[in-house]
Amino acid sequence: MKQVFFSMTVLLISYNCLSEHIYTYFGLVICFMLWAKTIFHTENGLSDGFGRAVLITGPGAQSLVEEGSDRVKVLKLDVTKDEDVCLAKNFVQANLPEKGLYAVVNNAGISDWGETEWSTAKDFQNMADVNLFGAIRVTIPFLSLIRASKGRMLYVSSILSFFNCLNMGAYSVSKRGLEAFADCLRVEMASFGVKVSIIQPGNFGIATKILHKKTPQDVWDEFDDARKLTFNQKYIEMACEYFNSLCTSGFKDCSMVINAMLHALTAPKPQTRYLLVSWREMFFFYICPFLPTFITDSVFHASSMYRKRKEMLYL
Q1: Strand partners, 245
Q2: Which of 21, 156, 191, 277 is the most buried (most CB within 10 A)?
Q3: Residue 76 covered by a domain
Q4: Phi, psi of 221 (to 5 degrees)
Q5: Where are the transmembrane segments (predicted)?
Q6: From edge to edge, which strands make up the β-sheet containing 152-156?
Q7: Residues of the domain holding 278
Q8: Position 34 in a domain
Q9: Options 171, 235, 274, 306, the catalytic residue
Q10: Structural contact between residues 268 and 201, judged by C-beta atoms closer than 8 angstroms
Q11: What is the CA radius of gyration of the chain?
Q12: pTM over 0.85, yes/no
């Protein structure tokens, strides 16, 4: 741990000293990440999970009934309702195996897209009520059971928690808040031997079907006259085409997410974060949190969609 702290301190100092030599800084960041990855892989291992219960929010109930074993118990749990959470806790306590509740996997989530000016405060609230407050609502009542077993808390976030994406403001707000909550919880729970991990999936749109498809007319019909004077209908069509393409692209199954969850649940020293992107994207997303803001913003300024957007807006 002292070595990691020292290395990170060196990186922070190096950025201040080498801000004019950005490629040198990138090299230091990459070397550090590869070194940390090597250290982690030497500590992998599995622990005994027999007789332990795991609560998972969000998976499809029908598929669990059809494909799950007789040890799987399905219960109704709307994470936006306190009464559902209370009933779920009573159900879990009544059906605990001998070693108790070992983990809670906060997997429930929703997604939608749209520019901030197209949205309302209610849109942001609805997103946060599931993705952020839903996880908080589930976490707090079950913490005493997790502490008793010195277990695990898992949170399914997204790369959009740290990577700012056009048209994904409400979703990013909810996931960034979720990670802040999980980070604070990890520090608090360490004293009790409880480990907290965050899963950061990339584009699993085709596998999860989480991103809603919209038609240009759906979006246009919700605009008032003032918005129609700013946003070109051609841009709406382009945005819909782009985000609908995300629904049919990316990873075709959730095996990477499931494997990350299994590791976070069973490894003696799980990662605090599991970044799940393609190998082509891995380099960028590993260094993205360390990059200066003007660099990450320039990714959008250089994209063809951003340029076309600016040309289409009625400025």
Answers
A1: none
A2: 156
A3: yes
A4: -65, -20
A5: 283-302
A6: 53-57, 101-106, 152-156, 195-201, 273-276
A7: 59-213+252-314
A8: no
A9: 171
A10: no
A11: 22
A12: no
